[in-house]
Amino acid sequence: MTDTVEIVEVGPRDGWQGIGPFIPTPTKIDFLRRLVGAGLRRIEIGSFVSASALPQMRDTPELLAACKEIPDIDPQVLVPSERRGREAAEAGAPRLGFVLSVTESHNRNNVRRSPAESAEDYARLLAAIPPAVMIRLNLATAFDCPFEGRVAADRTLALLDRLVPVRPEAEICLCDTTGRADPAQVGDLFRAARARFPQARTWAFHAHDTYGLGLANVHAAHGAGVRIFDASFAGLGGCPFAPGATGNVATEDLAWMFGRMGIATGIDLAALIPVARDGAALPGGLPGGRVRDALSANPESCSAAGLT
User: Fold this and answer.
1) Mean pLDDT of the chain
2) How would you class 78 by CB atoms within 10 Å of its CB: exposed for 0-12, middle for 13-18, buried for 19 or more?
3) Angle in degrees, CA 281, 65, 130, rounded to 5
4) φ and ψ at 165, to 5 degrees?
5) Where do the TM regions start and end (predicted)?
6) Neighbouring-strand partners of residue 150
7) Residue 239 catalytic?
């Protein structure tokens, strides 16, 4: 395998945040250990948000502290504001994912402010945290909005015009929040963004599989030069502020697709499938994906494909 991609595991944040029954913290830590054991390194372990808004995320500081005892894990936490970003940095988070939405309606529904106000918050956060803290910029509704529908590329690019110069070296992730993007749209937007912002060298894609196009959209982003992809084990997840947008693209599905294409992910599918099965069985979870069930029914397929 001469080509490689990085898969960022977001299940412990995106996959769990909408689950009602609280998952015990020791159970979460055990999942983190097992995910690392399957070859995943960068894991979005949770978010620093209001516990009343997302009760499942209330133990993120404890999970962050536990990561110090998990060799090889690279923990990432999601933050929606300067205040929460400061809290995460003070708690020792080595990597922050700052999120804002392209569309006014989704951003106000999500963080109670306009995209312009969130952009100002982003700049203030960067000025406040230590330079060693890694930053990812997540643009939600970059392709489609649950309230406004399809988002024109010009709107996403215009927001990037404001955000990229603040820290050009930040990783930029364009997010298909609703799962309604299509491969042509994904490929076109990434090509346009990479051409317009040559100073931004690291791009990522966050796909949902709500309408069954998650893998196709990832493939399109890869064809446009993207090499970092978010995924959730067992296909768990969805945005609680985007009605119907359940189902992140499954980590095991991405690992299978890229492996069949001869592209290395560093993931041991034979080790990941049992973790995904247990994730799919969590009470209140909404699992997705196909490879988990296929390989559970025929485990030899994994070895035969050379993906162990």
Assistant:
1) 94
2) buried
3) 125
4) -65, -20
5) none
6) 144
7) yes
| Kind plus residue range of the DSSP H or E element containing 30 | helix 25-37
Query: Of 173, 175, 239, 302, which residue is the catalytic one?
Result: 239
The CATH architecture of the domain made up of 3-304 is Alpha-Beta Barrel (3.20)
Per-residue pLDDT tens over the stretch 232-286: 999 998 656 556 556 899 999 999 999 999 999 999 999 999 999 999 999 998 8
- Using CA atoms, how far apart are residues 96 and 168, in angstroms rounded to an integer? 15
First to last CA, the chain: 14
pLDDT value of position 296: 87
Write out the H or E segment, with its range, that includes residue 51: none
Answer positive or negative: Cα dihedral of 129, 132, 87, 23: positive
Is the pTM value of this prediction over 0.85? yes
Instruction: Output the pLDDT for position 247.
Output: 82
**What is d(CA 172, CA 161) in angstroms, rounded to the nearest whole number?**
12
Residue 254 and residue 290: Cα distance in Å, rounded? 10
Alpha-carbon gap, residue 25 to 63, rounded angstroms: 7
Residue 40, H or E segment: none
Largest CA distance in the chain: 53
Q: Are 85 and 50 in contact (CB under 8 A)?
A: no
Task: Inform me whether the pLDDT recorded for 48 exceeds 70.
Answer: yes
Domain boundaries, the chain: 3-304
Structure tokens at 252: 């095991």
Q: Say yes or no to pLDDT of 137 above 80.
A: yes
Q: Classify 1 as helix, strand or coil.
A: coil
